[in-house]
């Protein structure tokens, strides 16, 4: 049987008995999207790589608790957000800051000037971390609002309002860049 044909959920359940093969496929499916999601949360490349590895280590260890009725993607991103939030709290305790990378823009295939990059950085840093998480899950990871709301710990209706306000705020902050063109 070709394991690559199985759904994420079937692979997660299969990984309980065949951990290596099934987990490797899940790892490959989510390598780029999860890493990029973590980058969008403000981590530099080295930190994002560490958080990515921490997330997948936690996923591997917790596969036994994965429920059949759950969506693997939601479960995975919940673990990732917890890792990012734990790291953010740790960084705040140490008093250091992380920076948002140019890769936030590059993945969207937008050609930008350096002043536009700075404007996007500033806009993203103006958004609260939890709102940025919701925004990136919906906008870049393609999650449904209700699913993303569950991951960040909001009700779907609160997530809709937050997403609308966050999108509007980022649009306002990026208006000067659009006006230059």
Report the count of strand segments: 0
Structural class, judged by helices and strands? mainly alpha
Q: How many discrete domains?
A: 2
What's the CATH topology name of the largest domain?
Rna Polymerase Sigma Factor, Chain: A
Q: What can you tell me about this protein's structure?
A:
- The protein folds into 2 domains: 1-99, RNA polymerase sigma factor, region 2, helix turn helix motif (Rna Polymerase Sigma Factor, Chain: A), CATH 1.10.1740.10; 104-181, Arc Repressor Mutant, subunit A.
- Helix 2 (19-40) packs antiparallel against helix 3, helix 3 (45-62) packs across helix 4 and helix 4 crosses helix 8 (145-152).
- Residues 96-112 have low confidence and may be disordered.
- The longest helix is centred in the last third of the chain and has 25 residues, at 156-180.
- It contains 9 helices and no strands.
- With 181 residues, the protein is mostly helical.
SSE order and pairing:
Layout lengths: L7 H7 L4 H22 L4 H18 L9 H23 L8 H4 L7 H13 L2 H11 L5 H8 L3 H25 L1
Helix pairs in contact: 1-2, 2-3, 3-4, 4-8, 6-9, 7-8, 7-9, 8-9
Comma- or semicolon-separated keywords:
Arc Repressor Mutant, subunit A; globular; 181 residues; 2 domains; Rna Polymerase Sigma Factor, Chain: A
Quick recap:
This protein has helices spanning about 10-15, 20-40, 45-60, 70-95, 105, 115-125, 130-140, 145-150, 155-180. The protein is mostly helical and about 180 residues long. It has 2 domains: about 1-100, RNA polymerase sigma factor, region 2, helix turn helix motif (Rna Polymerase Sigma Factor, Chain: A, Orthogonal Bundle); about 105-180, Winged helix-like DNA-binding domain superfamily/Winged helix DNA-binding domain (Arc Repressor Mutant, subunit A, Orthogonal Bundle), CATH 1.10.10.
